[in-house]
Amino acid sequence: MTHTPTAAVWDELGGDPTLLSGMSTVARAGALEAVLPVRELARACVGACALAAAELGALRAGLARVPRVSVDDGAVATAFVSERHLRVDGRAPLNFAPLSRFWRTADGWVRTHANYPHHRARLLAALGAADGASPEDVGALLAGRSAREIEETVYAAGGLAVALRTPQEWAAHDQGRALAERPLIEWGGPVGGRGRELGQLSGGGPLSPAAGVRVLDLTRVIAGPVATRTLALLGADVLRVDAPRLPEDPDAHADTGFGKRSALLDLAADRPAFDELLASADVVVTGYRPGALDRFGLSPEALAERRPGLVVAQVSAWGAYGPWGGRRGFDSLVQVATGIAVTEGSPGRPGALPAQALDHGTGYLLAAAVLRALTEREERGHGRVVRLALARTALWLTNGIGREEGPAGSEAGTETGTGSGREEGAGVVPEVLVGEPYGRPDLWLSERDSPLGRLVHALPPVSLAGGPADWSRPPGRWGTDTARWSEGSRAPGGAAARRPRSPRVRR
Length: 507
Known about the structure:
Elements: H1 5-12, E1 23-27, H2 38-61, E2 69-72, H3 73-79, H4 82-85, E3 87-88, E4 102-105, E5 108-112, H5 117-127, H6 135-143, H7 147-156, E6 161-163, H8 167-172, H9 174-180, E7 186-191, E8 214-218, H10 223-233, E9 237-242, H11 250-256, E10 261-264, H12 271-279, E11 283-286, H13 300-306, E12 311-316, H14 331-337, H15 340-343, H16 357-380, E13 383-389, H17 390-399, E14 422-424, E15 427-429, E16 431-434, E17 445-450, E18 453-458
Parallel strand pairs: 1-2, 1-16, 8-9, 8-11, 9-10, 11-12, 12-13
Antiparallel strand pairs: 3-18, 4-5, 5-6, 7-13, 14-15, 17-18
């Protein structure tokens, strides 16, 4: 069977392979160029998400066929660096703080992450540096120490530092071996009792009313917020909840807060309010390191047991297993550990992917998994637990995708033109069209007013026929919304109006 990247992802999601014939891609040379097949990864993750959204929308609308979906490399490439395109009243955000960078060590390289004040403080404390230490001061401290010793010392202090490894070194590492034994998308369940039906869809995105999908967003930074931003685009009532003592970076919030509301809750002091939200949630998405929420009784399994039919989606840096399962991490650090920085570097100096593609790609995969789990719930009534990890996505990028033959890195075995996808062996190959080379990201940017100021932002790459082309609302100020579901997503009596069960949709 031909297994293109999109087909491989769709198979991991448990999707019907015949639906792939209704997908087309506009391939553009120059989009997300790299040594590794970043464009193929990005295209597959967004394409699978779009197809999952179309499938759920068709089921809810009672359609006999799933509408066609199209993915454009230009929109995907622009969205995968959305944080770089963001402008707030003309100001470009600072995506990496001065102490978030590569450093030479006595025996190689290490990368640190210190965008958040508490991570910066822990890094400096671990190194014995003064609170006001400059990058030059830190560089001098690191130059005489080994990279692995720095990694362990900083992590022991609650900071973030990762030694540069080759792909071969990571494959031999205990965490690398643990990841290699796991699938790209880990499914648990079915779990819990029967969830509520979402009701007949009369227009808008696949998560829109009759009974809008309620998503409790417990995520931070990029991957998790990208997933929930995508669910908000598709019509979900997304409420992001943060702890008052952990402020989000304002620019990160501006980039990923589209379509959502943002509230603050202390899980210890405000537990009744949180439990009330959970009691009527359809989806919970978590992005904290594995185990961080367990002390509140909010592990994925505990959440699923408490709420019948709940879909729980967890994203982490390193996975919820292995010796690094409880460690903090970010895309830039995962690239360093897994050998990506060596592969994308030049002799004597590490490099990086053209986007934080592990974050963005995993985010769209997470949204796709939620959509597929909701489709299953509509058909069978049960919830699911799903887990993804940036480091497992990295393994897929370095070991599982491969560079495809064809125009602009198009799916292998496809032809250009205007026809539908065709069968190749026992599989179905999506259609690929050749577009103009990627050189004008402004074609996929938009501008709008917001409570934060005038925003320039990347448009969503997930596009459905008749669906929204942009988010219904801009990001508001972080933590200023009330911690309750919007009135429009509440169904009378707490349940959606019942509709006749639809047969499984086909093309």
